Amino acid sequence: MFENIRLSLQGILSHKIRSFLTMLGIIIGIAAIIAIVSIIAGTNEQIKNNLIGAGNNTVDIKLVQGDWDAEFNRWNPVPDNIHVTSEKQRERIEALDEVESCTLYRRTSDTDSLYYLNTRIDSASVYGVDEKFFDTLGYVVTDGIGFSENQYHDFSKVALIDTVLARGIFTDGENPVGKIIDINDEPFRIIGVVSKRSSFEPVINSIDDYFTYHQSSAGMLFIPTEDWGIVYSYDYPQNCTVKAVDTDAMTQAGRKTADILNENIKAVRSQNNSEEEPMIGMEGGGAYEYKSANLLEQAKALQDLSKSTNNMLIWIASISLLVGGIGVMNIMLVSVTERTREIGLKKALGARKTRILAQFLTEAVVLTSIGGLIGVITGIGLAQIVANIAAVPVAISGTAIAVSVIFSMVVGIVFGLLPSVKAANLNPIDALRYE
Description:
Layout: H1 2-14, H2 16-52, E1 58-65, E2 68-69, H3 87-94, E3 99-108, E4 114-116, E5 119-120, E6 124-129, H4 133-137, E7 139-144, E8 158-162, H5 163-169, E9 180-183, E10 186-196, H6 207-213, E11 219-224, H7 228-231, E12 239-244, H8 250-261, H9 263-274, E13 288-292, H10 295-338, H11 340-348, H12 353-390, H13 398-424, H14 428-432
């Protein structure tokens, strides 16, 4: 085997230009496949991170009616079958293997009575949050201070706002910390400004910019969950956000949490069905239930769409491997013709067919393997160049590299077999007399 490899390398080096041109098809095919696979992997990871939020791994489980988020107010009170989540249910959620942390919060966008001075703020959402809300969702305090442990429970009427609301309401560099915002005629003192660790933030220079932008991203005002009853007398149900242990666990974390939160609603439905009464919460839009935002499946759908397109490119790139294989077969047939007298001499001295077959087959495999290795190096470089020019991420796949090298060897075996068999079957008398 090693002798065959030595002879193969010697033959390749003795015809450098010819050998390189023979390998060129293999090099181009392997390089194209490595580059495409690497860019596909990087793009899919970017899709996943952009949709999910890189490193956040959070899933929202919201109360919905039909296809819409449930909204309650004085004219649309909370149905009897929707209860506040119990502490036992929270503990069960936090005990799930897929869940790292859990927060329960209340939210409303019905802010007709939200004012700063004489200006009504009609485009913000009010959140009633617990102690784990900001850590779970990845918020940090950028100005002022956050809620203390006591302020979550002592009805001190303090509030935090996000940077979108801060820049929209407090213009000209005015510091929002210490200002008073009225919620249903109740004064709340702003003690800090928060923002997500990694998020898109628009350019807002005036209150007009803020009211334009709120259509796609409203500002947020946060109060302790215990203060919720001060401004909203009706009993809002709680939404939930869980932080999964990793992105792959997000789907199961969301589904299992939604199942736990839906237990009370389902119990009442079951009771009503047994009594042949209409189910509570079915009026005008469908039944109420908790649903998780399945971002992972959305990311997978986009990735599958990307893969289906790029798989076509891989098949197209594979055509060059076929062309390269034909080139290998052609040059090996030429090599057999050139070395006919050598083959005849070896057979006359007692070389068996299998020895001649192995020699030429090894030469074909070595030729394509060298081409494959050069193709891998070229593919990695090409992927980096495309990534820099097109500003797309790239993720080099070790599996793709290994498969490419093995595939190039298979090409050598398949396309080198016919010339090798031809060499092995030469008649030694005719080979020695060949001119």
